[in-house]
Amino acid sequence: MDRRRFLTRAGLAAAAGITGPFAGVACAGARGGVTRATGYGPLKAVRDARDGKVRLHLPDGFKYRSFSPAGSKYSDGSIVPGRHDGMAAFRGPRDTAILVRNHEVSGAVGAFGDKDKAYDPAAGGGTSTLHVTRYGEVLKSAPSLNGTMMNCSGGPMPWNAWVSCEETVNGPDVANDFSGGDNSKLTRKHGYIFEVPVSGTSNAKPIKAAGRFAHESAAFDPQAGALYLTEDCFSFASGFYRYTPPKHPLKAGRLLDGGRLQMLAIKGSPRKDLSKGQRPGATYNTVWVTIDDPDPTFTGKPSNDEAVQAVGKQGRAEGAAIFARLEGAIYHQGTVYFCSTQGGATAEGDTPPSGFGKGRGQVWAYETWTGRLRLVYESPRSSVLDLPDNVTASPRGTLVLCEDGDGDNFLRGLTKQGQIFDFCRLEPVAGDPGAEFAGSTFGPGGHTLYVNVQSKEGTSFAIWGPWQRGSF
């Protein structure tokens, strides 16, 4: 991911008008139905190149190595935290990759790494930066942002930075959340996004104008200079946001605070509920409504449930659309793809998940230059796609979906033709049925797919093999 190639690809795509109103996989939703692709073939247990244990099931010819597990040490001797989540890969020297990885640690458990650099010394989340080979061998590693909380996902920026998102509104002004952590121990407000440079450490300054809400992912449009943000408000309605900074980040060289936060609405249908089942290929014209108070400070210490809805309620009061748990997002050729993890209708025989939304997942596409929103895919049942979370795009434009399901968890591919296939299955983690895939990202040149498993502990993986045999 370097700035010149990022802009060149985006410019060529726009100039070529790829193809029709929606680029790549976004066209697939119009066909609807369940179409299974053969993918790379059946999955089988494969032993980890690090220690010989079976952790993943992959197609024939693919190998992997796990690395940087929770509890291991950074290069400086400090301890790697757990809850590995969102991640992006950037080009390093001599065919290596630089990974910036989130840690979704909740509660006032104390900052990892150097507490003097922490945004909030009481908070245990943040990011790691790792210099790795194409085969998952760690050359160097270090904390790059600490003292934040519940860093879920984020997004890569073409000026060689990662935007890390806090999925919480915890702070000393808010009552305790579901995790049971003691918010009175926190010294700062949380619920923001932070920029992390690929080289070095973050300045730990939040972009407050981009909102204080349960942030999940960030996707940057290099043409307009806007940052698209998803919200995962687990028990309540979620929204799709756009942050426009006061200066184009590619000119400023970074993401500036002080811009405008808006929320997507459906033209002519205020408060349109898109969390429910949709017709195949459903397409909507959109408008944006402005959030007047993106960074609320609370008095009287309201409940966490009240505080987490404060920004979204402003948007919905102006007609913003309703989604169910928006999680992963990726910008690809003029389109922002994002996952509504619990969107859609409940299939016959399936059990509705807990939280807001009763489906097994939707994938949406927002075309940045026309403002049109289209349903790419809606899960027909949990056995086909079960709660899609993080998402990335392969070098050929196929989407990689990380599942957060109730049973087996897969990495699944969604092709430009709307076909879905299984690529990788997680071997169940002993004592942790909630373990899930997260943070999938292709390394430079597409040789390696790096991905995390978020669990009570957590680890990262490098996967390589005969990619040319399939649609990734």
Textual characterization of the structure:
With 472 residues, the protein is mostly beta strands. It has four helices and 26 strands. It has helices at 3-16, 249-252, 304-308, 310-317; strands at residues 44-47, 54-58, 63-67, 84-91, 97-103, 125-132, 138-148, 151-157, 161-166, 193-197, 215-221, 226-231, 240-244, 260-266, 283-290, 326-332, 335-340, 362-367, 372-378, 388-393, 399-403, 410-414, 420-426, 436-442, 448-454, 459-464. The longest helix is centred in the N-terminal third of the chain and has 14 residues, at 3-16. The protein is globular, with a radius of gyration of 20 Å. Mean pLDDT is 93; it is low at 1-21.
Task: Describe what is shown at a glance.
This protein is 7% helix and 36% strand.
Order of helices and strands: HEEEEEEEEEEEEEHEEHHEEEEEEEEEEE
Number of strands: 26
Q: Helicity range of the residues?
A: under 10%
Structure classification? mainly beta
- CA radius of gyration: 20 Å
Spatial order of the strands forming the largest sheet: 11-12-13-14-15-19-18-17-16
Total helices: the number is 4
The backbone outline, from C-alpha atoms, is globular
Unreliable stretches (pLDDT < 50, length at least 5) are: 1-21
Instruction: Estimate what percentage of residues fall within beta strands.
Output: 35-45%
Termini gap: 17 Å
Query: If you average the pLDDT, what whole number results?
Result: 93
Q: What's the main sheet like? A: 9 strands, antiparallel
